[in-house]
Amino acid sequence: MKFAVLDFETTGNQSEDRIIQVGLVIIENKTITDTYTSFVNPEREIPTFITELTGISDEMVGDAPLINEVIDQFQPMLSDSILVAHHAAFDYNLLQKALEEAGYSTFNGKVLDTIDLLRLMYPDMTSLQLSMVSDSLGINHERPHQADSDALATANILLQSLDRFFNLPLLTVQRIAQIFEPITDDLAWFIHELKAEVELETSLDTNTNKYYRQFALNVNDWADDSSDSNLNQSEPSNLNPSFEHFIDEIKDSLNEQFESYKERPAQEQMIHEIYESFENEQHLMIEASTGTGKSLGYLIPSIYYGLMNHETILVSTNTINLQAQLMERDIPLLHKIFPAHFRAAVLKGRNHYLCLRKFESKINLKDIADTREDRITAGQMIVWLSETNHGDDEEVSFGNKGKEFWMDVASDADSCLNRSCPWFKKCFYHRAKYQANQADVIITNHSMIMTDVIAENRLLPSYGHLVIDEAHHFEQVASHHLGSNLTYFSLIRIFTWLFKDSKNGLLPQLRFQLEHMEEIDGHIFTGKIDKTYEKLIQIKEEWDILSGLFYDVIINKRNTSSIEAGQVVLRLKVDQLPESWSSIKTTEQNIYLELNEVLKTCNELLTILKEYQDEYDFQSLSTDLSGAMKDLFQFRDDLRLFVQMNDYNEVYWIEANAHFKQKSIQLKRVPIDVSEILKQNFFEVKNSIIMTSATMSVNESFQYSLEQIGLEEDLKNEKLRAVQLPTAFNYRDQSLVCIPRDFPAIRGADGDEHFIQSLTNSLVEVAIETQGRMLVLFTSYRMLKQVYEKLKEVLKPQGFQILGQGVDSGNRSKLTRMFQKSDKSILLGASSFWEGVDIPGEALSCLVIVRLPFQPPNDPVVEAKCDYLKEKKQNPFMKYSVPQAVIRFKQGFGRLIRTEKDKGVVIIYDTRVIHTQYGKHFLYSLPKPKIEHMKSEQMVPRIQEWFLD
User: Fold this and answer.
1) Tell me: the pLDDT tens digits for 720-770?
2) Which residues contact 444 (CB under 8 A, 6 or more apart)?
3) Could you tell me whether strands 774-778 and 688-693 are parallel, antiparallel, or unpaired per DSSP bridges?
4) Please, which contacts does 233-238 make with residues 24 or more away whose CB atoms are closer than 8 Å?
5) Which of 636, 650, 483 minimizes the C-alpha distance to 546?
6) Which residues, 6 or more positions from 328, have their beta carbon under 8 angstroms from its beta carbon?
7) Phi, psi of 345 (to 5 degrees)
């Protein structure tokens, strides 16, 4: 095959923009055989931002040939070629337009996009940006955004993707080709061409790859996998019985591992505090600031105590990312320095693991939408299956609709065949659960332990000792999991599972089976199934009506609050329901009764399936039908609970998006106070619970955190201890907090024009002084976007890169990498950027907090909690709103200083920190940085002076 890899640089990305550079690389027989490049005179000025992006100036193209001349030179090279480009549609359209203008026939050959090939061949690749891909694959890409360099990088990406394809197991290649049948586009044609080549060159190698049920896997049966270190026997006898001596041994091992190892007093104190709590069967609330080494601080005493006492220790984090960090970074280090072997395992929620039975059925039945997106998703999962040891969705970078595909094949309890499943010994979820049962320390997450509570403690191994990391999120996660969230698609998804069309879905499959059973009168049951089809369509129509009624309520209610990007939210109160609520109740009653009829019919069908399941191999079908019924039961009951609103300890609200109307409806309910539930399920029944975070105290007091989880009495009776560790850094020398005391006050949630302009002007001045290296934290996406546009207009021509969450990308990791790699960069973030972002070193030297992070007072949960406190004759603003905002504020502040060598400035533009009585709680809660307030015009000179010190 001959490939022509093409890249254009242009004066912009609109249809009227002109080409300024061409890069072309020819590949034949998997070898680069020719290249072509030329600047092009666009006969117009190149915009400044394009020059900054590409490095191509007007001077460089002034004497260059026109596009017609360039086309004359490289058009013959395209002959008999497959056209390849990165984001091919852009370059393809430019090529066709240029060929036409030059008097040539348009290109009529095959067109491939390296984006598609990368997604298929590298399912775990997190960024498909050309420079990021080049870095990831070790490809030299010297001049990003110049056509010759981009084309060469794209050519090398194509060659590596082809090489990877030819090294896949033959069975994997054949399975991918099956997904791309029939051949409907150039990508499908290309895959079948490659498959034919692979089949000529490759034979099935049963030694190299593991094959099972016509899939290539990378795992053995989980109980037989001797390569798994978690199955090795632990050796507590090797541990020093003296904890003090054991810690000395650990320090010696760390000294051997790291030349620059330095003892951390706060970490050592943390280790001893946690071990003491385990020994005394006490709970512990311990605040450990950035730089403490918190992960090792709780893992070392936990593993030691667990091994010495033959007990399993559970560690719970708030995020999947931190789970992965512990398992990939901290546990391997501890295996090196621990004098005894221990077993560690990760266990996530079941929906994070692939169900191999469902996936097999989906692929074999070709139950895949005939779209490029779904075919690529299925293909990348086939490749991933030949590599993964864990079957965890976090390992796959899905495209736009990939998560929808995953929902169809994710593991779930209701449709699990357990030991009757042909995939049981390969099952990823049961592998993870088996490893957890063998482990000395289990790393899970807050969502999982709350799901375990709901499942009556049947999911996790029995444990008496629990470490809760990122504990400031624990109460919120508990509240979320103990409530419900119904969406428009909650019901539609179950219906699609039951009945997608006349051939696809559980009921059509069952109908086909019953028609061919001789033992029963199939017509009776097929007739019932046909009536169920009609009933499902009727319920769907009524659900559309009910969703429309909910949407009308939220849109018509005057006190609806606008959130972000068209999102609206409305809290419902029993004594203030709209007139239409009676219609809502009537429609819900109809749906309830009709769902009962469907469930009754399904139960009859299930009885038949179970009766004949051994003879006709109905077990898989009956299990799936049973799972769908459980989901319907749950939906029916949750909808009734929401509409009836009988629980006064719960808050009910509706959310919707004005753009997507009734299909965006979310019906939410959560408990207002979960403290009693937490006490009954955790603090009263577990031997010792360690709660740790960098932000649990307010004004050096744990009172707020204790109240949220109902532990005030435990502190008094010494069942719980609260410890605030000393900070690991010298914040007074490392950080300066600047507050411009004359800065205009913010009016409204999103700020008025005067505030926005003042903020922009000040940020420009500071950015020029600090040369970017700035993270700006917002509480409003709308304000972020307003400031983004203004900063871009002023600073882009000066060579600054402006990055905005939700503007350039919603992906926090991608934006953070781009920020760290670029000089003179300014990153604007909201929501998730207030915590969990780690940018050490000089990449971040200035942190900006635009506004104190109070939650909107009309947020349903905030409003309900405030009403609850008012009933108890307490001040909700000081008891709830301020402490919650302080903790968030501390998280934001913690983004700046990440190592003992960091130095930087924090600017707070919200003057309420110095002009209000409650403002002192924010400043007093910081780890004693240098705090100064000044006039706005004095701020930049003070920052300049600070960095020169």
Assistant:
1) 999 999 998 999 999 999 999 999 998 776 678 899 999 999 999 999 999
2) 314, 315, 316, 317, 323, 346, 347, 348, 460
3) unpaired
4) 233/341, 234/307, 234/340, 234/341, 234/342, 234/343, 234/440, 235/307, 235/340, 235/341, 236/307, 236/308, 236/310, 236/340, 237/340, 238/339, 238/340, 238/341
5) 636
6) none
7) -145, 150
